[in-house]
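*** Fold description ***
***
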Amino acid sequence: MSVDLSKLDAANKAIQADKAAAKTTKAYAQAATDVLHAMNPVVPPATQRYGFSTGYPQGSGFAAGVTADAYAAQASSLGATLLRFDEPAPSTGANGRLAACQAHRQDSIVIVPFDADAAAYAARCVALVSKYGSQVWAWELGNELNKGVMSPEQYVVWHRTAWQAIKQTKPSAIVTTQGLSGYGVIGQADAKGINPVTYMQRCFTADPKFGECFDYLSIHPYPPFDIANATVAQLMDTSQPYNALGQLSAMYQLLDQHAPGKQVIVSEIGAPTANVTQSVQAGYATSAIQWLRTQSRVAAVTWFTLLDSPTDGTFGIANKPAAQAYKQAIQ
């Protein structure tokens, strides 16, 4: 039986050419990324920034029908210089909110709501950044996707797609990771969610250079407020494995390995008065902020939240002792 070795040789050359092309494309993409970072390095804030995070809006305002201006004014009266909120679409809602932030000298973190289609999500990010980029301090790509929404292996691809689209549109735009839920203990991964440290470990395993795709890591290190009759001491016991504040040190170590120099934004933290007393909520506001002020890796904190509402529950601190505790703690 005769064998045409020329065909085998041609096939092998074609395979090698494909590999070379793929390698060249990857090298080009990496070079483009390096250029973007060199041109527009993100300079961490000199001091921590404080503000409020809110849930999905109702009516024309941030929560419970309150107007954007009234919300921003009340937040400002407590010393807030930063507001974090969802943006439902490029054509609705943003102008009023961003104008309110500017009127009260506040910057904004805008959460771009989740869309599982990576291309569609990237396009939405581009539309928002193109329209409002000059008015927004940072863009947060998704919220608590580690609670059973998207695996780390899927997330790194999805996030990188949006990050590249945003940076190509506006290289100076600040982009954060999703707001990671402080779910469970380190190592925990089940149907309800994946612990944030564990989630990020898997992200870096799936994509060792994932650290180049965000300017800040966003996280929600809530206390264990579901403890019956919880005290401030119990909420602040960072030695407990389920206390997400105590897990921040492990997150810092992970960033040191894979994203040196990157800082953290605590984009949600708080305690609802449906679970704890108003006195405990106020004590926790004081203790948590005092503790966070000792954390050099924490660039900003947005407390969840200012107002009670059907969507945000009883996490609000307005008209409760925690309001003055918060104001005094951030000064």
